[in-house]
Structure formats: C-alpha cells, structure tokens
Amino acid sequence: MTEAKMHTLEVPGAVLHYDVREGEADTEPTLLMIGSPMAASGFGTLASYFTDRTVVTYDPRGSERSERTDGALQNTPDEHADDLHRLITALGVGPVDIFASSGGAVNGLALIAQHPDQVRTLVAHEPPVTQELPDREAALAACTDIHETYLRSGSGHAMAKFIALVSHDGLFTADFADQPAPNPADFGLPTDDDGTRNDALLGLNIISCNYYQHDFDAIGSASSRLVLGVGAESSDQLPARATRAVAARLGTTTVTFPSNHGGFLGDEYGMPGKPAEFAATLREVLSQRT
C-alpha cells in the first residue's frame, strides 16, 4: 500500500479532508473506512491490513481537519450521508465497500437508504441507533444531559458522563441521567472548563446522531449488502444492543467481531483492541456476497 495522499472536497457547509491509500493489486472495490466523529486518524492500523485494495479514510464535517464553514451547531446523519455521497462521486470508483464504526455506521445506514447504488457492502459496526431501544427515552435523556453538561461545564465533565453512558451494561433506568455525576479526574479528564465549545462528539453529534430516525423501509429494500457487526466483548452496552435491535427490525442477524466497540484500533488512542483478528473477520465478511 502506498503512502496516504490527502485530498480536499468542498461540500455545502464544510471542506472535507480525505486520504487515499492506493492498493497494490486493486482487484477489489475501494474500501471506505468511516467513523463519526472519529476521523481518519483512527483507521491507520486497520487500513494497514488491506494493502491489496485502495483504502479511503476521511474526517467527517466538524472533526479534525474537516471544518464546518457555515457555523452550524449540529451535524446530522443526513448531512454526513450527503457528504459521503459526494465523496464517493468525487472518487469515481463506485460502488464501494464501506466499513463504518459507531456514528459512522449510523451515517452509513443513512447513505444506503438514500444512495444504495454507491455501496456494494456496508459493514455497520455497532451503530448507536438509540431510537430502536426499548429504553430509548432514558437513553436519549442521558444523551441530552451530556450535551447540556458540555455547554454548561465543558468537555471534562461531559466526557465523564459519556464514558458512564457507553460503559453501562443493560437497560437504562428512567433516573439514569439524574444519578450523581462521575468525577472527571477518575478518568484522567480535566475538571476545569477551558471555555471551548467545538468538540465534535459532545457539541455537534451526540444529539443528532442518537435521536436520528432511520428509514428502515429504504434500508431493507436497498441493493447494498448490509452486515451488522457487534463486538464479542461488548455485552449489553448501548451500541451493541442497538445493533441487535436494528437486526431484529430488518429480520436479519449480527456478525460477531473480535474485541469491543473499538476492536479495530491499534494504539491510535492508547486503547488497542485486536486489530489483526478484527481485520481478518472484516476481510472474510467482505469476501462473502450472499
């Protein structure tokens, strides 16, 4: 695989930055790896296991290099899906395969509902489709509380609550958001507010992503092949439960991937999963067509 080459793409309200790693053989469709708000920097290790095909990674609008130009205070899955549509069009290589993680998987589902012709296979790994949970009201209230905590007290206090949310195993009780707030210092997070309010997760995405209502009729009838992945160690945490709920809604099953929600990571964020095993499972899934 060649060194990643950075490109930019102007889209309504933002300038996207994306990286292209040319494959050695390139006999397979281009593989787009997407997260949200996680940017291209989180996919370096996983991309290194796919030297036989071209791999494209990008920074979603509002994340890292891809700054919004319109001053909007929210990123919506529909905006992200339109960005992906424009990116694939600009690449001129469709239909592509997509590995989508977390919020990126929410955006990937929106993409195949709107532009299924551009995607051969979407591997949606643990999308937090919170609206499909039986305890959605309590979970969404917790998301709202995290966002409001961020606006009121800054990233440290909000991120501590976010960690508590995504680490919670099982159903959320109605009073989950009212429980005593965790101490940011317990997670190595700052307790002081630095005054910034440009965090892509806590400010731009957490509300619009979790509150998004998917068009499951369009997803179910899409020509794109959909694979829903759940981490072997994810137990009953919110993204894993939501993925199983989506599978039930669509009358399909989930595929188990090694490790946890971030199982594909190397040491990008100091929390490595099992990237070699994860990549092997992803390769096997992508090679299947039925």
UniProtKB/TrEMBL annotation:
InterPro entries: AB_hydrolase_1, AB_hydrolase_fold. Keywords: Hydrolase. Gene3D superfamilies: alpha/beta hydrolase (3.40.50.1820). Residues 52-132 form the AB hydrolase-1 domain. GO terms for molecular function: hydrolase activity. It comes from the Bacteria. Pfam families: Abhydrolase_1 (PF00561). SUPFAM superfamilies: alpha/beta-Hydrolases (SSF53474). This is Alpha/beta hydrolase. It comes from Fodinicola feengrottensis.
